Amino acid sequence: MPRSTDWLEVGDRVLTRRYRYLDQQIGLVLGRGEALVIDTRATPSMAHELLEDIRDVTTDPVAVGINTHWHWDHAFGNSVIRPAVIWGHERCRERLLADGAASRTEQAADDPKRRTNFEAVVIDPPDRTLTIAADVEVGGRRVELRYLGRGHTDGDIVVRVPDAGVLFAGDLLENGATPWFGDGYPMDWPATVERMREFITGPVVPGHGAVSDRSLVERQLAEFRLVAALARRVNDGLLDRAAALAAMPYPAADAVEPLERALAQLLGELD
After folding, report:
1. Helix (H/G/I), strand (E/B), else coil: 229
2. What's the CA gap between 169 and 158, in Å, rounded?
3. What angle separates helix 189-196 from helix 214-235, to the nearest 10 degrees?
4. CA dist 232 → 111, 251, 261 (Å)
5. Rounded CA gap, 14 and 27, in Å?
6. Would strands 128-130 and 85-89 be described as parallel, antiparallel, or unpaired?
């Protein structure tokens, strides 16, 4: 059992730690003699903190890292966990190489308190990539990586530890807050989460917020379906934008972006 009270063991030797910064969940899978970490946090200093926290659980080296997607808060700590092998979707690698430096500059400007930490980020994308599926081994345990479709980004993957029945959903799910749609594909997101359901046999760990179960998946699936349905009605001229915004499943301040993003997708304006 883990010695740290801040790690939650959600399955046999499968743990998650909920960090206050961005209310983020970071996963840890322990094998024989080595460990696997799911997402590497937002800055090198945060990644170093993560490695120190892992030492509260095991002295085994982190041999494998996984980026659930390419956003900075999930991948900017990559260089710190080297020489671990890092896995991610092929578009995770592509987007970090194309946009990582600009994202680093933007975060440094937006967060003066952590400016130096963001400026220290080394853009270090996954060196192992998948298109649809890959199985990774850590200390004799199989960990499944699956791309189920576009949603929060164009390169989200879910991570399943089959012998423990635990699913890490990344930011395809967010518990306790409105999912972020800024790089999202609202018209695809419902089908992606529908596919996720077949992998659920126990705890579900979202990218942010509390650990849950199938109920979180079903609730957010209903919300994503409603967003898509409202956007279709606006696009078809059956509903005006004000009425659609009023019917959205999110607070008024959060409702505009998902609707506008969905309409842009329906108009063919997104890749």
Report:
1. helix
2. 5
3. 160
4. 37, 20, 12
5. 8
6. parallel
Token output for 34: 């080595």
Of the candidates 21, 16, 26, the one whose C-alpha atom is nearest the C-alpha of residue 171 is 26
Tokens 């390419």 locate to 70
Which of 24, 154, 47, 13 lies closest to 90 in space, CA to CA?
154
pLDDT in tens for each of the 271 residues of the chain? 343 349 999 999 999 999 999 999 999 999 999 999 999 999 999 999 999 999 999 999 999 999 999 999 999 999 999 999 999 999 999 999 999 999 999 999 999 999 999 999 999 999 999 999 999 999 999 999 999 999 999 999 999 999 999 999 999 999 999 999 999 999 999 999 999 999 999 999 999 999 999 999 999 999 999 999 999 999 999 999 999 999 999 999 999 999 999 999 999 999 7
Closest by CA to 4, choosing from 12, 16, 141, is: 16
DSSP 8-state secondary structure symbol assigned to residue 114: G
- Please state whether the predicted TM-score (pTM) of the whole model is above 0.85: yes
Query: Measuring CA to CA, how many Å separate 62 from each of 50, 161, 188?
Result: 11, 16, 34
Could you give the CA distance from residue 60 to residue 55 in angstroms, rounded to a whole number? 8
> Is 143:136 a contact under the CB 8 Å cutoff?
yes
Domains along the chain?
A: 7-213 (3.60.15.10)
**Of 69, 81, 7, the residue nearest 43 (C-alpha):** 81
Strand segments (E) across 20-102: 24-30, 35-38, 62-66, 85-89
Calpha distance 195→102 (Å, rounded): 33
Residue 125: how many CB atoms within 10 A of its CB? Answer: 19
Structure tokens at 104: 């680093």
